[in-house]
């Protein structure tokens, strides 16, 4: 015999005998069972017979798996303690009174054997055969003796009463409903992992170390008929709540039939199931269909199966079967949850079984009140007797013993849907738990990253984009963590919105569209804030570009009652009016002949032709002749040429007054050259300043006349 000295002890609080620390455990030479990396011993601990599981292995990988299993058990203990406390505070049925959860870990430990080997494990209640407990797999496994297996199946499926069978279903669903409320995934529900007691009508789950806490599991469970389709095809690499829902439906089916639901299809594959569901509704199928197994045509087991479904199985369970196996085969989110199973099965089980028995002292005598109760029922019936007779339509559905249950989570949406038909909050939970939200976030991340790389490639080149690609690969783990945090935030926001909608019974929105819209808005705001052109600055860029300073550019109004408008059009609101020679700051030019100005602290627009950069001066002196005769050339040709040279020099120095004077004194030489000089200046201004065309035309006219030097100077300065 081996002696186990415990160095670390943790109690779950389900049994008061293990609230105090256990120091040593004596392990017998024989063991009850052996798993992949653990051995189960039958031990007596603190005077109570226990099943003690010891994780031990020399293989490195199995040691790591054993460590994970031990950590899962410790985390499950914390969940049980917290949730059991809540149940007791609410006055509800505690966990220790639930039949399915009797085999929860009572304590976990770490210790050392007297052989010097460090081990870890946990202890739970012993389900002894002497007390009537039997593993459900003994009725199905081929390793069991053939005659014994046939006798057990005959009794269980042919002779066992329906009430006891419903008790097994009730215990199973109550246990999984509680596990789901604690956010724990069993992940390995199969006939080997639960025991039944036909004498007492109890069912008990075992083997919790393969599960996962907080809705996350790292294992798939044992392959077989209870394996969810997405795990069998490889679409999912770990178990979740939806795989547990599939296993629950399969176990309930095995409580009524010793074979799988789709036995008449033979070897089940994705292609066969899609062809079957495209033409049939479970369990209906034509025996001439190519999907129907040829061997089953001669056995006629299919017809008996259809008959037993309608006669021996309650209609509520049949409807749940149809929904789970039909819609839930390829759509995990459409499967019936353990809570929904429990709500439908609970009314079928007697109240005496649901409520734990209360021990009544022998001195207390309980007097039945059946007579008074019958009198009350008769009085109530007589009171409404007339109404029942006057309304025969109310008696139409009285003959129906069961009301069929139809679960339609994918019903078409309308603006006003009654609250009791569907809960948005539950749909949001299913959406996130099924992995759809995670897939959507990954697609969005990939799209943003692809756009980012394309923009970098277009602006900075191929090599910088390739560098960004490598950096993005190294940051993938960080992005996954951030996406999970973001999903929790989105889930909280959408749930808060859905609770508000459900509270007021207002508009019912599709939860998937709501999540996509919220995620799209977040993506838009993130992407709109990225400046792809300035992400990488050039290494050769050394000059600092200073921000432009505001420059005051004042113009003057050249007319009275000029409108200052809010927008650059003649229909917008008038902010004010300008009078002749009013000074105003021009911010910039604008299209459609307007200038953008600052007017009394506001931004406005003024038509450009009413503004000039010098005050307007009205010239009252008018020439007596509109076309004066040109000055005749003087006799002194040398003096005229000298004046012509002075005129050219003055014109080049922009001294237009002196240039006009010398051109006038140059006689015939000055008229030709002066006209050409002023005409070339006007052409240059026409090419540069398109909005000064009218003033340049006046300049050309004055250039032809070669008179009135003051107006020529003003026009050229205004155009500049």
Describe this structure in words.
By secondary structure, this protein is α+β, with helices and mostly antiparallel strands. Helices cover 45% and strands 13% of the residues. It has 23 helices and 19 strands. The strands form five sheets. It has a seven-stranded antiparallel beta sheet with strand order 2-1-6-7-5-4-3, covered by helices on one side. α22 (693-705) packs antiparallel against α23. The longest helix is centred in the first third of the chain and has 31 residues, at 60-90. It is elongated and about 150 Å long. Residues 357-371, 386-422, 505-509, 530-551 and 620-634 have low confidence and may be disordered.
Number of strands: 19
What integer is the average pLDDT? 76
The largest sheet is: 7 strands, antiparallel
- Structure annotation, total helices: 23
- Strands side by side in the biggest sheet: 2-1-6-7-5-4-3
Indicate the overall shape.
elongated
Q: Which structural category do the helix and sheet elements fall into?
A: alpha+beta
Strand content: 5-15%
Q: How big is the Rg?
A: 46 Å
Low-confidence stretches at least 5 residues in length (pLDDT < 50)?
A: 357-371, 386-422, 505-509, 530-551, 620-634
| Cα distance spanning the termini | 111 Å
What percent of the residues sit in helical stretches (DSSP H or I)? 40-55%
């Amino acid at each position: 015999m081996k002696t186990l000295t415990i160095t670390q002890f943790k109690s779950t609080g389900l049994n008061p005998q293990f609230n105090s620390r256990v120091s040593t455990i004596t392990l017998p030479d024989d063991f009850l069972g052996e798993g992949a990396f653990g051995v189960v011993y039958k031990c007596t601990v603190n005077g109570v017979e226990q099943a003690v599981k010891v994780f031990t292995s020399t293989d490195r990988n199995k040691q790591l798996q054993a460590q994970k299993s031990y950590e899962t058990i410790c985390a499950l203990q914390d969940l049980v303690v917290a949730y059991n406390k809540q149940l007791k505070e609410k006055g509800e049925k505690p966990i220790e009174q639930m039949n399915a959860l009797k085999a929860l870990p009572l304590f976990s430990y770490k210790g050392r054997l007297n052989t010097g080997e460090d081990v870890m494990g946990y202890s739970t209640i012993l389900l002894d055969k002497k007390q009537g407990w039997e593993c459900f797999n003994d009725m199905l496994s081929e390793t069991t003796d053939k005659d014994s297996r046939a006798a057990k199946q005959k009794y269980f499926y042919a002779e066992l009463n329906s009430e006891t069978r419903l008790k097994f279903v009730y215990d199973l669903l109550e246990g999984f409903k509680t596990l789901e409320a604690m956010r724990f995934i069993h992940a390995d529900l199969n006939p080997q992992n639960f025991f039944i007691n036909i004498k007492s009508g109890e069912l008990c789950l075992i083997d919790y170390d393969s599960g996962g806490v907080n809705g996350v599991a790292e294992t798939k469970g044992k392959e077989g008929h209870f394996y969810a389709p997405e795990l069998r095809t490889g679409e999912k690499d770990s178990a979740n709540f939806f795989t547990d829902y599939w296993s629950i439906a399969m176990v309930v089916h095995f409580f009524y039939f010793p074979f799988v639901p789709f036995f008449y299809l033979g070897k089940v594959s994705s292609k066969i199931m899609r062809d079957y569901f495209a033409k049939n509704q479970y369990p209906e199928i034509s025996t001439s269909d190519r999907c129907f197994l040829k061997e089953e045509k001669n056995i006629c087991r299919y017809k008996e199966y259809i008959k037993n479904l309608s006669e021996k199985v309650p209609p509520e369970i049949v409807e749940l079967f149809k929904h789970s196996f039909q819609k839930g085969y390829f759509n995990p989110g459409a499967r019936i949850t353990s809570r929904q199973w429990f709500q439908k099965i609970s009314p079928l089980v007697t109240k005496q079984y649901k409520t734990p028995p209360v021990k009544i002292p022998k001195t207390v005598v309980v007097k039945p009140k059946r007579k008074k109760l019958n009198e009350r029922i008769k009085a109530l019936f007589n009171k409404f007797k007339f109404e029942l007779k006057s309304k025969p339509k109310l008696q139409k559905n009285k003959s129906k013993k069961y009301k069929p249950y139809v679960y339609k989570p994918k019903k078409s949406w309308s603006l006003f849907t009654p609250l009791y038909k569907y809960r948005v909050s539950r749909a949001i939970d299913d959406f996130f738990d099924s992995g759809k939200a995670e897939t959507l976030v990954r697609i969005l991340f990939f799209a943003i990253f692809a756009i980012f790389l394309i923009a970098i490639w277009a602006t900075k080149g191929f090599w910088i984009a390739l560098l960004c690609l490598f950096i993005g690969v190294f940051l993938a783990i960080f992005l996954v963590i951030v996406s999970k945090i973001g999903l929790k935030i989105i889930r909280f926001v959408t749930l808060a919105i859905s609770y508000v909608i459900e509270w007021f019974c207002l508009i019912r929105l599709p939860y998937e569209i709501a999540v996509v819209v919220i995620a799209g808005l977040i993506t838009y705001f993130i992407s709109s804030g990225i400046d792809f052109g300035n992400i990488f600055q050039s290494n050769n860029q050394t000059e600092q570009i200073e921000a432009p300073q505001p420059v005051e550019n004042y113009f003057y109004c050249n007319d009275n009652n000029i409108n200052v408008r809010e927008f650059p059009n003649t229909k917008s609101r008038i902010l004010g009016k300008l009078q002749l020679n009013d000074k105003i700051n021009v911010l910039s030019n604008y299209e459609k002949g307007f200038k953008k100005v600052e007017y009394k602290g506001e931004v406005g627009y003024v038509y450009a032709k009413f503004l000039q950069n010098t005050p307007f001066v009205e010239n009252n002196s008018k020439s007596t002749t509109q076309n004066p005769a040109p000055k005749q050339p003087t006799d002194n040709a040398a003096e005229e040429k000298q004046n012509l040279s002075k005129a050219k020099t003055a014109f080049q120095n922009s001294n237009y007054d002196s240039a006009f004077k010398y051109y006038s004194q140059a006689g015939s030489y000055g008229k030709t050259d002066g006209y050409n000089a002023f005409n070339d200046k006007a052409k240059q201004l026409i090419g540069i300043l398109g909005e000064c065309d009218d003033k340049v035309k006046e300049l050309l006219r004055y250039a032809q006349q070669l008179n009135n030097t003051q107006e020529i100077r003003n026009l050229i300065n205004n155009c500049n």
